[in-house]
């Protein structure tokens, strides 16, 4: 089986890039930086301990 992984185009999200945390919340969004244990593995979609 072969497959190709491609990232999302940033264009649909461009209006969110410069917003504050409060402004993001109005759109139901939040800014998260995942660099601690406990955040999911985005490649395998598994929870890391």
3D structure, described in words:
The chain has 49 residues and is largely without helices or strands. The chain has one helix at residues 21-26; strands at 40-41, 46-47. Strands 1-2 form a two-stranded antiparallel sheet. The longest helix is centred in the middle third of the chain and has 6 residues, at 21-26. The protein is flat, with a radius of gyration of 15 Å.
List the helices and strands and how they pair.
Layout: H1 21-26, E1 40-41, E2 46-47
Antiparallel strand pairs: 1-2
Overall helicity: 10-25%
- N-to-C span: 30 Å
Mean pLDDT: 79
Name the shape in a single word.
flat
Largest sheet: 2 strands, antiparallel
Q: Multimeric state of these chains? A: single chain
- What is the alpha-carbon Rg in Å? 15 Å
Biggest sheet strand line-up: 1-2
Order of helices and strands: HEE
Please indicate the percent range of residues in DSSP E strands (runs of 2 or more).
Answer: 5-15%
Number of strands: 2
List low-pLDDT spans. none
Tally of helical segments:
1
- Count of domains: 1
The secondary-structure class comes to: little secondary structure
